[in-house]
Amino acid sequence: MFNVGDHVVYPFHGAGTIKDIEEKDVLGEILSYYILHFPLVDVTLMLPENRINDSGLRKVIDQSELDSLIEALQNGPDLPPTTSHFSRETENLLKSGSIIDAAHLISSLSRKQTERANGLHIQDRNHLQKARQMIASELVLVNDMSEEQAYEFIDDALLEMKQA
């Protein structure tokens, strides 16, 4: 399934690396745990192997998928006005772990931000920041970029959208 050293994405946390696979005795049962480290947020967590399929854990995208990412950043769907229902949908997009969902969210919220005279509501700003962080964390591992370069990559794609 996954091996030590694999770069993976864990929904809502972003991209990280499998540092180890440990066996633990839990109530007399030996269970395997993946030890994941997320460098951008400096978080380490243990994920039971028997919950991998339900967790949404996936490998990071390939270099060949960067064009699809740029396309998603530039052509995200329009968003409806902020409502509590929309907020739940936005949370679900972030929890999906899909880089394309996160890119669509960034595109839509960035477009909304430029259309509003007083910017985004706090909840939308938080979602935008979280989506940017998730994509940046994956770009750092996929493209061997620094964190700053990853955010520049996102901003450059959005700038091209505005100029088009």
From TrEMBL:
TM ranges: none
SMART domains hit by this protein: CarD_TRCF (SM01058)
Superkingdom per UniProt: Bacteria
Boundaries of every CarD-like/TRCF RNAP-interacting domain copy: 1-110
A biological process from GO: rRNA transcription
PANTHER family: RNA POLYMERASE-BINDING TRANSCRIPTION FACTOR CARD, TRANSCRIPTION FACTOR YDEB-RELATED
The protein's name: CarD-like transcriptional regulator
Organism: Halalkalibacter hemicellulosilyticusJCM 9152
